[in-house]
Amino acid sequence: MPSLMPGMPGTKEAYGISIIREDLRVGIPPRAFERYRLKEDGFVVLITGHRGKSGFGLLNRETIDQTVFAGFVQQIEETETVCWFKEKAYTISKLLGRQLSLRPEFLEAYYLTVGNRLLVIKSTTVTMSFTPVDIWKASLARQGFSEAIKNMDLLEEF
User: In 3D, which of 85, 49, 81, 55 has the Cα closest to residue 70?
Assistant: First the structure.
């Protein structure tokens, strides 16, 4: 999987760009799908990142019991609904094949809109991040990482 800054230790592994389509579907890059051991039509958990920030983390529902999020996720009684714990949104969702199907309330909870281009990147060993490209580019520009910004434009779209 490509790094945004090849040869630089500690840089994030990027899987590609996923776009929120008109039908509210989001593709999951194949390498990310395999890396996080997702299953077609399996269950995933979406979690907000920092309060008020756009995007979400995606975790495999089968492995979440080993994380700090387990206590919250175990309290969720229905899939496809947004639940709030400590001002963070949590959603258990079923994949449609290898795609995530969002609902309008998910867009609201995760501060997203149709057409958003989301950088899919390794966040932790159990979480992949779906964050708008513009947020990443602004952050990388502030840090002077112009090579990473340029490399982001070369990533495959899903």
Answer: 85
Identify the CA nearest to 94 among candidates 39, 147, 137. Answer: 39
Q: Is residue 109 part of a domain?
A: yes
Closest CA to 58 of 83, 149, 69, 108: 69
Token pair in block for residue 76: 């969720």
Ranges of the chain whose pLDDT falls below 70: 1-12, 50-52
How far is it, in rounded angstroms, from Cα 80 to Cα 101? 9
Q: Which residue has the tokens 């920030």?
A: 53
Q: Token match 């500690």: residue?
A: 10
Q: Are 68 and 113 in contact (CB under 8 A)?
A: no
Q: Is residue 117 a part of any domain in this protein?
A: yes
Contact of 109 with 82, CB cutoff 8 Å: yes
For residue 75, tell me if it sits in a domain.
Answer: yes
Kindly report the number of other CB atoms within 10 A of residue 101's CB atom: 16
What's the total number of domains in the chain? 1
Q: Can you tell me the distance from the alpha carbon of 148 to that of 20, in angstroms, rounded to the nearest whole number?
A: 23
What are the CA-CA distances from residue 78 to residues 39, 73, 82, 141, 143 (Å)? 20, 10, 9, 40, 41
Domain range for 33 is 14-152
